[in-house]
Write a structure and sequence with these properties.
Helix content: 25-40%
Radius of gyration: 24 Å
Number of helices: 10
Shape: globular
Order of helices and strands: HHEHEEEHHEHEHEEHEHHE
Structural class: alpha/beta
Strand content: 15-25%
Strand order of the largest sheet: 5-6-7-8-9-10
Distance between the termini: 46 Å
Number of strands: 10
Amino acid sequence: MSKKGLFLRDLPYDIRILIYEAILANHQCVKQNNQPSNAHIRILHTCRQIFYEAHAIFHKYVSLRNDWEVDHYLTYLDSEPKAAPVVRWADVANDGRVLENAWPVPHPRHQLNFEGAMFPGGKGHKPLLLAYELHLDPSTRANPFQTLAFKSHPLSAFIGRLFFIHAQGHRLGFEIRNVHLESLLAGPGSRLRKLVLLGSSRLSSGTIASCLHSLPTLEYLALSLVTVNELRENFILALGPLLQVLKLQITHAWYAVPLFEEERIICDALEERILLRYSPHTVMHVSFHSQLMAEDGRQDRWKKIAAAQHISLKIGPWEDEEET
């Protein structure tokens, strides 16, 4: 039996292309708050075969981690103008400073404007992006979605047909608020099929209900809500007819009082409108205060109803398992 190993060049061409794409996808991931490098380009120098097969894939991504790399890359584009249209993803680090005025003064003044520094241009100028992903450290001073407002940017048309995900990774990080959700849905965002909002404490129940009313094509909803002082609107009544996956978690902020009566109303609506009705729902994950689930045998009753209705039901925390 031969002990000769299997080399990359021995694999079929289609498999090699999939491997190159997997390498790039893994390389692009932000790990431990560290921006990826351009080390993936080194693979192209392995041999001529890999260069000719993978250069079109690997050159789709560029990472610029400091001013020197930005200047160097811009100089490179001056000599190789055909390289710019190839780029599909770019990670660019900047400190958010923009020049406050253009007058020649000994000490120019700067102001903090995160998106203004990332996307400079005249008034009304909108970069033609297909995707816009923010990875914000809690210490980052940023006020996103100004230059790139949802309702006025082609991004909304792209997201609107697919999904929108926001996870509150840190309590001091950027928090999605009512105005952001309303802006998303004011345009093509009404065609969302998947909506994921995790750790949201700045969204009102009224805005959530209005949002769900505006999403008739929604198929997947994962909402982890942290209540502070209100839960007046029963947003379960606003769920659309095409919803197949519902994940709902309601907790309260450590400094707030649990809203048991309002949560009880939502629990009753879930049972009457989701569990007991014939509907396309196939998955339901819920997490409420244990006191509510124990009332009148609610937890055991829901399990029996779900089994009879062929609904995959999970009761308990699910937020950490949600893919973002």
